[in-house]
Amino acid sequence: MSSIHPTRSAPFAQNLNIYDWRYRIGYGASPWNQLDFVTHYDYASTMQYSRGEQLWKDQQSADLIIRKRALQNRTLLTRFDFNSLKDQFSSFNYDRIQAGMTLAGRFPLKNAITLQPELGFRIENRKELSESGPYFAVNLLVPDQNIFDATHKLDAWSESSKFKNRQNSQVRLNYGVFGEITPGTKDSLNFYYDFLRRDNFLGNPLNQMVESLNKKRFGVNNHLTYDIGENGGFRMITDVSIAGVDIAHNRIAQQISSRGHDDFSFNNNIFMYWQGEKHRHQLAVDFGEESTEHHISDSSTTLTLSQRFTGVGYDVIEKYTRISQKSHYKFSDRDSIRFYFGLSKLEHDNTDQARSDTHDEQRWTAAIFHSRKLNEFITVQWELSTYLRHFVYLNSQLSGQNNWTRILKLQPECIIRFSPKAELRQRAGIRTNYVVSDYASDNSSVNNYVIRDFFITDSLAFSLSEKVGCFVHYRYETEELGSLNWEKFSSRPRTSWRNQWGSIKFRQRFTAHATLSVGVDFYEQKRWKYELDTDKNLRKEHVGTHTNLGPVVEFFLLTHSGSVLLFSGKRQKAFPFIGKAYYINNLELRIQWKL
Question: Where are the chain's structural domains?
Fold first, then answer.
């Protein structure tokens, strides 16, 4: 039985020239003894207005499930489904209507095992073709069964719908064994198998050209946890899966071409933790491998190269290793410090002989965060982090793009609580980003560059009365991009810009669940570029200024019954770098009420 939340919601949003409407309803009841039902309806519509033209995309989905409880805990189910899509955004014709009816029975077997067979039909209507066909499904659930001091669990599900020239099928099988080896040591082993078949028309359905996708996947998952005393533990999760994908092009049950690929996935995660009275530590190690091997059948050799290899890539193997460590020390109630260190390596191997993008990548990350409460009013905290990345192409034709990336960031913050009703937060930050090529180049302005930025933010919140509050926010940010000479550690600026954000809001609280906020938002960006004059002197030239300014209104209401009304509106007048001023409207209205 599908879950039900007896609510209705009707959100609306406008962002620039995009308008979104949505209406959802869910309801369930038991009008007669041993009989109940649930129903859902979801309608979504999007309109794009451009140059006096309206483009629409409408989607609808609905279902009705009726359940009748019979003797001996048996259950009879009837389900109706409906889906529709009308899309003017896409240049392809995806418009369709899908509907279906299903009869099912849920039968309890021994030891809480349940079997649910299903039988029904499906209908699909397109502009060019209307199809219908039978639908079959079966669901088997074997809950926890204790056998040989271990817990066994099994669930299996299969469904299939068949049309004249197409067939869609899906199978899922999960089997798991869970047990506690020793006190504090738990182990689980899961086996899973998936099969998926999807047949879709290529182009006009009247051409009867069908692309058939078949995917099979088998995997094993192991989850081991081990407690180390009362203050430590060990966890290891391993997952291995093998998948095969085949894609065939058929016309009237005759195969024209086929292609496919085999996938392999191995992932392993090891996690350790230990803690004391004033310290906590975590150590994680991840490593794994992902590979894809493509293959093309002999039936495709008669086709042209572009037809045979459409959508087919080259064989790829990726291997990764990641190590990370976190530590947290709390010296006192006023003083604490945190450390982080991470190291990762990625190996990407591509078999493309013409232009292989085979590469290796290494990353180092380190950070330290310190917080100290000076007194009951002032708290000071700061963070220092560094990031190092080395990217190397193994192909000599691309080795000119090999580079080092170095990032250093410092961010202090001060929090001042004047009273329980007034708080000021001030944060500043400086960041430098150096990108340096592995090989010297005469055109260092392209291969080597540096980005420097600085920001400062102030946030002030205080109460004017018991029900009226004021919130002020300001952010200043400046950034510069320049050419870099790493050997001399010198740079020449190329472009720079400055951003400013500001807002002030007054919030009126009518009740504990009803508030109204009004205010003003401001944004400004100025840009400059740097050029050499005839005397080879660097000259800074103002490119332009962009400004946004406008009012903001927000309203929130939560009733005692759980219904919600949320409105957010913003209208800004924009003064662009070039051209006339224009208005930007952002609206959001969300209504949700319980039946």
Answer: 1-164, 180-313
Helix (H, G, I), strand (E, B) or coil at 72: helix
Q: Could you tell me the pLDDT band of residue 183, with boundaries at 50, 70 and 90?
A: confident
Instruction: Report the distance separating Cα 317 and Cα 360, nearest Å.
Output: 12
Cβ atoms 382, 372 nearer than 8 A: no
How many angstroms separate the CA atoms of 159 and 405, rounded?
A: 51
d(CA 205, CA 163): 13
Q: H helices within 453-509, ranges in order?
A: none
| Structural Rg of the chain based on CA atoms | 31
In DSSP terms, 92 is beta-bridged to none
Instruction: pLDDT band for 440, please (50, 70, 90 cuts).
Output: low
pLDDT band at 393 (very low <50, low <70, confident <90, very high): confident
- Angle at the Cα of 473 (from 467 to 475), degrees rounded to 5? 175
546 has a pLDDT exceeding 70: yes
The closest alpha carbon to 275, from 214, 342, 325, 230, belongs to 230
Please give the helix or strand (H or E) that residue 243 lies within, else none.
Answer: strand 232-251
Quote the CA–CA distance of 193 and 174 in Å, as a whole number. 7
* DSSP assigned state of 89: S
Please state the separation of Cα 480 from the chain's center in Å. Answer: 31
**Beta strand ranges found along 374-440 (DSSP E):** 378-393, 403-419, 422-437
**Count of Cβ atoms closer than 10 Å to residue 212 Cβ:** 18
pLDDT digits 0-9 by tens, 309-331: 444 567 899 999 999 999 999 99
- Residue 317 CA to residue 216 CA, distance in Å, equals 20
CA atoms of 347 and 324, how far apart (whole Å):
18
194 vs 257 pLDDT, higher one: 194
38 burial (CB, 10 Å; 0-12 / 13-18 / 19+) is buried
Residue closest to 123 by CA, chosen among 115, 134, 132: 132
Lowest average pLDDT, out of 120-129, 357-366, 543-552, goes to 120-129
Strand pairing report for 7-9 and 12-15? unpaired
DSSP string covering 509-530: EEETTEEEEEEEEEEEEEEEEE
Tokens coding 215 = 């995917």
Gap between the Cα atoms of 211 and 224, Å rounded? 42
Select the more confidently predicted residue: 202 or 243: 243
What 3-state class would DSSP assign to 203?
coil
pLDDT at 445 over 70: no
CB contact at 8 A, 513 and 557:
yes
Whether 300 shows a pLDDT value over 50: the answer reads no
Contact 458, 426 (CB under 8 A): yes
Rounded Cα gap, residues 267 and 94, in angstroms: 38
The residue among 477 and 307 whose pLDDT is bigger is 477
Binned at pLDDT 50, 70 and 90, residue 396 comes out as confident
Cβ atoms of 379 and 373 within 8 Å: the answer is yes
Q: How far apart are CA 317 and CA 348, in angstroms?
A: 6
